[in-house]
Amino acid sequence: MSKIKYQTVTGMHDVFGREQLLYDKVKEAAQKIADFYAFQRINTPILEDQDLFIRSVGESTDIVEKEMFSLKTKGKDLLVLRPEGTAPVFRSYLENGMQSLPQPVKLWYYGPFFRYERPQAGRYRQFWQVGFEFIGDGSSVLDAETIVIAYNLLSELGFKKTIVSINSIGCEECRKDYKKALSSFLRSKKDSICSDCKRRAEKNILRVLDCKNPKCQQVLGEAPQILDYLCPECKNHFKQVLEFLEEIPVPYKLNPFLVRGLDYYSKTVFEISFEDNPEEEAIGSILGGGRYDLLGKALKTDIVPAVGFSMGVERVIALMKVKEIEFSPRKKEGIFVVQVGDLAKRKAFKIIQDFRAAKINLFEALSKDSMKLQLTKANKLGINTVLIIGQQEALNNTVIIKDMTTGKQSIIKQENIVKEVKKRIK
Ligand code: HAM
Predict the structure, then answer these.
(1) Residue 206 CB: number of other CB atoms within 10 A?
(2) CB–CB of 125/11 below 8 Å?
(3) How far is the CA of 264 from the centre of ligand 1 (A)?
(4) Which of 238, 288, 293 has the alpha carbon at shortest distance from 265?
(5) Among 323, 236, 235, 338, which residue's Cα sits nearest to residue 278?
(6) Cα radius of gyration (the chain)
(7) Sheet with strand 162-168: strands edge to edge
(8) What's the pLDDT at 261?
(9) Residue 367 DSSP class
(10) Cβ pair 269, 294 in contact under 8 A
(11) What are the residues facing 41 on neighbouring strands?
C-alpha cells in the first residue's frame, strides 16, 4: 500500500459508519423535540461577515480574539467560518423580515461550526451543534421553556441524571453597579489572581468569574455576587424562571459564577451537566445558552428580546459512548434480491427499478456473484423476505420469493412480483 499523502485538517474529523449513526440519532432526537415544540428548521450559510461576530459575540471574547477562521475574498470582504449559530440566526430573522411574523419566531438548527481552538478531547476545530432559538419575546416563561427543551433533548438521548446550572447576569443597568463592586474586589486581590484574570478584569470583567484556575476560584469564592445586584425587573424575571422550572420540576442549582463566554447574554444564563460525571469535566460543557435581549443593540439595529441554547454534538456523542447509550442500527425494512448468473443479474437490475417506482425498499448486492455472500448480507441487514433469481428463473421470467424465517417459498411471474410483495406487505 502506498503511503497516505492527505489527511484531515488538524482538529477536524471524518464521520462515517457507526459514528454517523450516532450523529443521525442526535439529529432525529432534535427533530422530534422541534416537532413537539413547533420549531422550524433554519439553515444559514457557513460563511458570514466577520463583523457580525465581533459585534455580537464580543471583541474581547476567546471566540473573537483567538478562535475565528477568517478569510479575505477576492473582493476584499472579511468573512469567517461561523463559530456559533445564534448571531447568524438572529441576522437572518432581521434580514428576512421575520419581525412581521407572529412572535416569538421559533427556529432550530443542526450543522457544522468552526473554532480555531487547541484540539483536545471534546474540542474540535469543526464541530456540530444543535440549537434552538426563541426570537421576539422577552417573557420569563420562554427562558424556562428553553431550559425544559434542552433538558428534554438530553432525556430523549437517554441521559437521565442531568442538572441545570443557572444564573442571571442582569441587564446593562444592574451590571454597571456589579462591575464596579467586582472591580474593586479584584483590585484588592490583584496579587492572588492569575495573569489572564488581571487582563480580563480590564477588558471583560465578568469573564473573570469563569476562570478555571483553582487559585482564582478560591479568591472568587469571596467575590460579590451578581444576584445581589439585580434590579427589581431582572430579579423578578429570574424568580419567575425558577418558579416555572420548579413546576415541572427540572433539577437546578444556582451558580453565581456562570457567565458564559459570549458577550450577548443578559438575564438568564444556563448550562446543563450530569450529576457525578468525571468524563464531562475532561470534555467541557455539552450544552449552554441563555437570554440575549441585547444582541439587537450590539448589532446597532432593532432591540429584539430572544433566548436559546445550543448543544455540542461531538461532546454529547462522546458521553453517549461512555454511558453506553449506543443505538443499534435501524432494522432495514424491505426485501432483498439475490441473483445468480449473468442473465439473472440483468433481470435483478430491472426489478430494482420496478421496486423503486413502487417505492418499496429493495436491497441488493449486485456486484457479488456468490449466493451465500448475498444471503449473508440480507441476514446482516435483518431482512426476512428474499427474492431469488437463479439461472432457471431468469430463463423462465420467474422469481422465487422466500420467507427466511419459515423457509416457505413460492414462484411468482416476474411481471407480478411487485404486486405480490405489495400484497404481502399489507
Ligand atoms: P457555546 O457554549 O459557545 O454557546 O457552545 C455551545 C456548545 O457547543 C458547547 O456547550 C459545546 O458542547 C459545543 N462546543 C463549543 N465549542 C466546541 C468545540 N471547539 N468542539 C466541540 N464542541 C464545542 C453557543 O455557541 C451559543 N450560540 C449558545 C446559544 C444559543 N445561546 C443562545 N442561543
Answers:
(1) 19
(2) yes
(3) 14
(4) 293
(5) 323
(6) 28
(7) 40-41, 105-114, 126-135, 306-312, 287-291, 268-274, 162-168, 252-254
(8) 86
(9) T
(10) no
(11) 108
Establish whether residue 252 lines the binding site of ligand 1, counting it when its CB lies within 6 angstroms of any ligand atom.
no
Cell of 329: 442500527
Q: Is the pTM higher than 0.85?
A: yes
CA angle 358, 375, 344 (to 5 degrees): 60
DSSP 57-90: T-TTSHHHHH--EEEE-TT--EEEE-S-SHHHHH
Residue 170 contacts residue 231 (beta carbons within 8 Å): yes
Q: Which atom, in ligand 1's list, is nearest to the CA of 83?
A: 25
Amino acid in the structure at residue 413: K
pLDDT average per 10 residues of sequence, the chain (426 residues): 86 94 96 97 98 94 94 97 98 97 98 95 95 98 98 94 95 94 93 90 90 90 95 98 97 94 95 79 88 95 95 94 69 88 97 95 95 94 94 97 94 96 85
Cell of 325: 447509550
Residue type, 345: K
Predicted pLDDT at 103: 97
Pocket lining: 129 vs ligand 1, CB cutoff 6 Å = yes
Examine residue 249 and say whether the peptide bond preceding it is cis (omega within 30 degrees of 0): yes
